[in-house]
Every structure is written in C-alpha cells, then in structure tokens.
Model the fold of this input.
Amino acid sequence: MDTIAAIATSSGIGSIAIVRVSGADALSVALRLSRQTTLIPRHATLSFLYDSTCAPIDQAIVLYFKAPHSFTGEDVVEFQCHGGSIVASMVLDALLGLGVRLAQPGEFSKRAFLNGRIDLSEAEAIAALIETRSADAAKILTRQLKGELKGFVEHVRDQLVEMLAFIEVNIDYAEEDLPLDMMQKIRLRLDALSEELLRTYESSERRKGLMSGFKIAIVGKPNVGKSSLLNALLSYDRAIISDIAGTTRDTIEEELRVGSHLVRIVDTAGIRQAHDTIEQIGIERSIAAIEESEIVIAMFDNSRTCDSEDLHMLTLLQTYEATKSVIYVLNKSDLPTLFDRALLQEGCLMLSAHRDTDLLIQSLQSLLDRCAHEDSIMLTSSRQVEAVKTAYKEVVASFDRLKEGQLELFAFHINTAVEAISSITSAFERDEILDKMFSRFCLGK
Done:
C-alpha cells in the first residue's frame, strides 16, 4: 500500500499538532525530514524538521512505531509539532513532497481493520467516540474499544457454530455414534441464546438515546404549561407563552443536560380536537414527537377539572406506556387543586413550572441514570442493532425446523444467524464450522 499522511489533530490554535504517517516508507521519510540517522521504536526524539530547501520548519517530537506494533499495523511515525494550522500544514507539505500520499478520511482506521488491529465494532466506536457529546456514550464506546462487544459476538458465534457443527455431523455422518441427548442440549442452548439476543436488542433500543441524546416530549392539551416548562428547563424564554389556546402550533426542540446526560427536549402543540388546518398539522407533529421519544412528560392542569380533552390525552398515553417511560405532571401546584389526581398514575409529580422544576429534573435524572447503568451489552449503531435482530429472528425460526427434524433447514437458519452476528466485527469464515466439527468428534475418516 501507499505511504499516507494526515494531520491527526483538529484545526485551530493549540499547543500541539500531530501529523501522522503510515506505510512502508514511513521511517525513511521521517529520517529524511528530521535529518536523523535512526529512530528508536517507541522512544521520543526531539528534532528539527526541514523542508526541501533544508530550511527548518519546526522543532518537534518524533515518535516511531515499528510494524506490527502500531495502530495501523504498519510502520507509523508521528510528528508532534507546535500547534496551529500553519506549522502542521508545512510539515504535511514537506511529507507530500517526499512522495507520501495524503490520507483519505478514515484511511488510518481502515488500514488498522484490514491489518487485523481492530474489528468493525472497534472502528465504529472510534468514529463515534470522536463525535460524541455525551459522557455516558463515551464510557460505552470506550468499553467497546476494550473489546466488550467483540467478546459478546465471539460468545454468540461460538455457541451457534458449535450447534451447527453438531447438526452437520449428524447430517453427514448419521451412522456415527453421536450423543443421544444432543437434540435436547441444542434446544436448551437455543432457548438461552435467543433470550440473550433479545435482551441485548431490547436493552439497546431502550438506551439508544445515550448515543445521540434521549428525546423527551412534553405533551398535553393546550394551556397546561408545556411552553412554560420548556422555558424553565432551559432557563430562558425559548417558547412564546400566552393564555390563548393553540399558541404553540409546531414542535420546538432544544438540547440541554440533565446531570451527565445530554437530552433533546421537545415542546409540542396542545393535543385536542382541532378544526384549524394549521393547528391540526401541529397536533399530528405532537403525536409523531411522542412516537419518536424515549421519555414523555405528560402535563395536566392542577387548577382545572378533568375534561374530555384530558381524558383523550390519558387514553392516547395508555397506548405508549408499554414502550416508553411516561412521567405524569400536575402543573400549577401553586393554585387550588381541582384536577382529580386519582385519574393519573401513582407517583405523578406536583409542580409549578414558573417556580420550581427540581422534582421533575430529579425524576428525569434518576430515569436516565437507570438506563445508563443497565448491566448489559450496548449496541451503538443501527447496523449492530439490525445484525442482532436478524440473528435473533433466525435462531427463533430454527426451533420449529429442529422439532420437525428438518436438519438442513435448521442448519440454514443457524448459518444465517452466524453470518448476521459475525458482521458486527468481521466476516464469517466457513472453516470455523469444520474446525469445530473435527475438533469435537473423532470420526477417524
């Protein structure tokens, strides 16, 4: 492969900028650039760097990582020069003048994957970690870099490949003396594995907001104080407030932090029966916001009796309680109570959006903390989620084929499951089945 180079630090003024080179010629160009006779691997060398006219560019620290003990698995040299865009660009230009090619976006990580230094899950974690703005997401992605997801995939794949080896031996070598309880053991393993896959998939779906920010929808009928609550949580007047019903005609979305969690909070139009076309569109968007959110803050007016619009709101919320976390809030607690609290879920919060939202913030933080600290593997991309979902469906589909004794079809479903789960980290090699088959059975053939 070509020797490549790129500036590895973000643009702008800083104390240090790093220029990275990777490839077979990395050491030779580094020696030419620094006028050094040798570089000791993994030792920092302070050296001046020179351009093609032998004029000094900068005094930098030069680090040499000898293949395969580097990020890319190739010879890698890093130049730690003084920060700012000019010096780093001059160093990069000097490298390009020595025949090095400018790296494409993600090419260093791509080479690391191709050379077996990282798998696909680790590559995705690196890309996401660079862009994340959530401390919780950073912790999860760091665990993936340490191989947590890789270990899960290998565990699932080993289980599936072993079962497949048993079955294919039964298909191809039916006359051999195989364990009589083999089928029962496979059923038990399939049952446990399907539960593990489903648990991982559902947990990841619940916690996907950890990566991009949990979406929280504030919903209720008109004039219950949704916009006042949004403004209070943001600590500035983002939404227009008035006593006129239907003032909010569209959804308003803003980001804020609740504890260590990044959340996207959405103020929605009041949900009611509307004849105004524009207001009806806003209500449709409000319902869409509920469907897209992980958490729903359902607001009701403590100072007004429950009416048909409130009952309609309660009926609507009941359809989402199984799949979303719903926090019931009685707003305007500073006014006389007229709303029947018995109609709401136990533990509904009493507050005044104009005066104090601490109870709501504490409730949100507790809910978000529980999601962040679930003790299960977290899938961090839609590709990973889809792979586990496919593997689960194929494992479930294989049950009936096994019961019916259709071993070829059973093997087909398990093969598909293996390919799906393997795609999270790397491609599945068919030789793995042969290795399992012949290592576990002394066929003597």
